[in-house]
Amino acid sequence: MLSKLRHLGPSGLSAIFVQGGRLLLLLWLTHRLEGSAFGVLALLQLLVSLGIFMADGGLSNVYFAPKPPERPVLGTLLVFSVGLSIVISLLMLAVAYGLSDWMQLPEVFPLSCWYLPVLVIQAAGVLPKGYLRRKMHFAALAMAESLAFLAALLLSVWAIGQGYGLKGLVWGYLLQYFLQTIAYWTLSGKPAWPDRGFELRQMPDYLQFGLFQIGERIVNFLAERADVFVVGKFLGPSVLGIYDVFRQMVLRPESLINPVFGQVAQSEMAQVRQVPGRVGEIYQKYLCQTLLFNFTLLLIAFALAPWILNTFFGEIWQSYPALLRYCLLFALLHAIYNPVGALQMAIGRADKGFYWNLALFAMLTPAVGLAAYWGDIYTVIQVEIAVFIILMYPFYKTQIQPLSGLSGWTFTQSIFRPLIPAVLIALLAFAGLYLLH
Q1: What is the DSSP letter of 11?
Q2: For the packed helices 252-271 and 340-347, what is the interaxial angle rounded to 10 degrees?
Q3: Cβ neighbours of 392 (radius 10 Å)
Q4: In this structure, are residues 149 and 18 in contact, taking their beta carbons and an 8 Å threshold?
Q5: Phi and psi dihedrals of 219, rounded to 5?
Q6: pLDDT tens per residue across span 116-133
Q7: Is 0.90 topped by the overall pTM?
């Protein structure tokens, strides 16, 4: 227990600082930028995130492979990762050029020219970061990432204040990833540094492990973010901007909480994956912990949605409390699915994630496309919620049961046990606000 707290403490503080800072920056920007600017930003972030998933060759988790790499093969893996990131950067630039024309957003391409070098910088640091995670050096990671984010935040705020707009955000991202990569190599030390020369014989094993991760990440990302393309195309950049800001906000608790518990749980599950029953025990605790925090924050926000919009957002955002609440319901469901990634990586079954997300992509993308074409933004989010509800049982049968061994009753308990106190806390928050007003 003390060991877990030692790892969770620095990681938790870092996650709160970084994700809290991003949320505050996002709220500040709602007063500084128009809705259409957030539509452009959504497309930029989609391109970069998709590129990052592809550019490292799936090597960010290579230390969790069934046979972790040794120093002789690290040089080959590093060259492969950086070389692939350059190719993917050029490919994403071509995609950005096409999107600028297709969606009639000319700002996307020139901003992408600034943004996409992030892929190469990030790919250069995936191996030492993976080593630090596998060795559970979370305090060092937390310090490095917090300081890099602080420097990036200060640069972005200054640049936006000087009138550089979205360019200021891009410059901040470049600085953040550059500082993080330098820190990863410095902190990992000699054990994670490549030997001279190249070792090609072991590469097929790691590439197969990495390719499944790339496939899983790409189809997962496209399945969940296809809405950016279709909403931007059929409903316009302003609607896309408002919708994407709400989605970023409601998924912020998940991006803050799950990595904190997930990186520790993944390392623990990887260490005991040969012990019958232990992986399921660890995953159940991990799921309950993350859902308790996520459900509580999301349900409080659901109860206080109009007050949140009137207090923290710009004027154009305040007429969309219903859209915010639909996005919060989607985030509640998403929080149940998200932790499985740590389980898949700990067991070394990236292929499971790939096939699942391929099915999700095949079902969700056309449904969202039809919803955007025939309906409005409310139809889009309602369809997403419906799809996630329909897929819950197949998700358990194909992912949770085979990888963790948890029974259906135990998995259901893991969801409803944290839901009940979260509902009570949200009701108390609503009652408290009602009494104050």
Answers
A1: H
A2: 30
A3: 15
A4: yes
A5: -70, -35
A6: 788 889 888 888 888 887
A7: no
